[in-house]
Specification:
228 residues, two-stranded antiparallel sheet, heme binding, heme transmembrane transporter activity, transmembrane helix
Length: 228
């Protein structure tokens, strides 16, 4: 399955061409989100100003799940095709996903301290997200030994995604239920817009990090072969 779109040379040319556009979108969305979340969105009547951490915590949590699903898809495609770019995609996604998951855990702790009186509780949602972080680290570790084993491990780890999503519904947890669902949202529009803007900013940031990391891996492989 060596189509032009999956050739490293094609990827290097396209990524160099469009990276600046992604960076511009990322800066614009971030600036808009910061302005709306700090100066436009009102304070929460229960949590006061402490709630504003949701503007980075919730989008980071969404990205940690989205990246894992994308990584799993890339792993399945690698198992089916053995195309090296799919392996690179999975390896890069594991690094970026681990960063977003760690950021989710840290910001969640700072949000939970004033609400629960502690940075950490062994809550079903928190514990399943912590497991996701370890799965990301495990995927990175397995990538050092075998891409096939790493891909299988990532596919098995998909079991944890619905557990994270529905843990607040399946068990009695301290973590609040999802405020946004297919049935609507309980968040006011003035608070909802900054969340989606930050999510879009994180999405473009992920694309930028993905491009930079993948380009670095391809270049290091190229110079290694050239020096031999």
């Amino acid at each position: 399955m060596y189509v032009p779109l999956l050739r490293p040379f094609f990827f290097m040319c396209c990524s160099f061409r469009y990276a600046q556009i992604l960076i511009g979108f990322c800066w614009f969305l971030t600036a808009m989100a910061i302005y709306l979340s700090i100066w436009v969105a009102p304070s929460d009547f229960q949590q006061g100003e402490n709630y504003r951490i949701i503007y980075v915590h919730v989008p980071a949590a969404w990205m940690s799940l989205l990246i894992y699903i994308a990584m799993a898809i890339s792993s399945v495609l690698f198992l089916l095709t053995k195309h090296p770019l799919f392996q690179l995609f999975s390896k890069t996604a594991a690094k970026i996903g681990a960063l977003f998951t760690l950021f989710t855990l840290v910001t969640g702790g700072f949000w939970g301290k004033p609400m629960w009186g502690t940075f950490w509780v062994w809550d079903a949602r928190l514990t399943s997200v912590l497991i996701l972080f370890f799965i990301y680290l495990g995927a990175l570790r397995f990538q050092e030994f075998s891409a096939d084993v790493a891909s299988i491990f990532i596919c098995i780890g998909l079991i944890n995604i619905p557990i994270i999503k529905f843990s607040v519904n399946w068990w009695n947890t301290l973590h609040q239920p999802s405020s946004i669902s297919q049935f609507g949202t309980s968040i006011h529009i003035s608070m909802l817009i900054p969340i989606f803007l930050i999510f879009a900013s994180f999405f473009f940031l992920t694309g930028i990090l993905f491009i930079l990391e993948t380009r670095q891996i391809i270049l290091s492989f190229y110079f290694k072969r050239k020096s031999q």
